[in-house]
UniProtKB/TrEMBL annotation:
Superkingdom of the source species: Bacteria
Compartment annotation: Cell membrane
Lineage: Bacteria, Bacillati, Bacillota, Negativicutes, Veillonellales
PROSITE patterns: ABC_TRANSPORTER_1, ABC_TRANSPORTER_2
PANTHER family: DIPEPTIDE TRANSPORT ATP-BINDING PROTEIN DPPD, OLIGOPEPTIDE TRANSPORT ATP-BINDING PROTEIN APPD
This protein's encoding gene: gsiA_7
Similarity-based family: Belongs to the ABC transporter superfamily.
GO CC entries: plasma membrane
Ranges of residues in domain ABC transporter: 5-256
Protein name per Swiss-Prot or TrEMBL: Glutathione import ATP-binding protein GsiA
NCBIfam families reported for this sequence: oligo_HPY
Amino acid sequence: QKKILEIKHLHTHFFTDDVVVKAVDDVSLVLEEGSTLGIVGESGSGKSVTALSVMNLLMGTKGKVVEGEILLNGDDIVHIPEEKKRELRGGRISMIFQEPMTSLNPVMTIGNQLIECIKNHESLSKKEAYDRARNILEMTGVPRVDKMMKEYPFQLSGGQRQRVMIAMALICEPEVLIADEPTTALDVTIQAQILDLMNRLKEKIGTSILFITHDLGVVAEICDHVAVMYCGRVVETADVYSLFGNTAHPYTQGLLASIPKLGEKVEELTVIPGNVPNPRHMPIGCKFSPRCSYAFERCFQEEPRFFEVAPGHLSRCWLNEPNRLKPCEEVLPQP
Ligand code: SF4
Ligand code: MG
């Protein structure tokens, strides 16, 4: 399978007044052509910063890619002039966010925003641009397309705005679409429709998707591969079947346990106890050790590296070291 997006040993740091926060710390990921890669983690895990690094949208923040490579279809997209980066955005790579209102222009009609998107990247006649805008809007399944072309964002529902955002992101047929929690603000029914829409358009347009979420339930719906992030690192990565069928890392197990089951009340949710550590006081060994119920001595001293638990399935946990028994098995009475 062709690698459409390749992130190699990415380090993105934030330079605050008194401390350097390693928001992304040696992350390597591969997005295969035509597939969807989910990046999962709590807030502060580095998943959004990874996306912003790929989009080259760290300008104006205190963040900077300090090391590593990001290749789009083999082309380096980090060490290129700002002008070239601008060309990539919305053209070869585009992004949708959780709150479409922040990315839509409130005083411009939907039609004109879509047309402007095309014109930023391609030279088409007015008629061609209009037809293409109308066509992609129609593909998103919104009702009364001609009317909506003339409407303003505030006249639409949240679900409709998200569809318009998706249309805007895909109108130039990008090689990669990055979606950062695009359905989090929507209710469950609309959420399912939007995921379905993304799947359909992905097939039609041939875009590959980097899907960022805190919700493993959503990952199961839409992703082919998954990378679970914690404290700026990938802690577990696998194809979606192996990740759910053979979950290796205690943090992923915790995330899985916190997916609400049908009919379960929200108060009954199992959430992983404790918080993501303060970047000023990062644990020395495994970054998850303060919250991990399996933690043992070594976890507090030495950071685990990746171990391959199945072909292509990596976990950064000492429990996954080959030939090692889990502590719970060690204390079980032997038959
Ligand atoms: Fe838990 Fe230790 Fe594994 Fe970290 S290395 S996840 S602390 S068992
Ligand atoms: Mg985020």
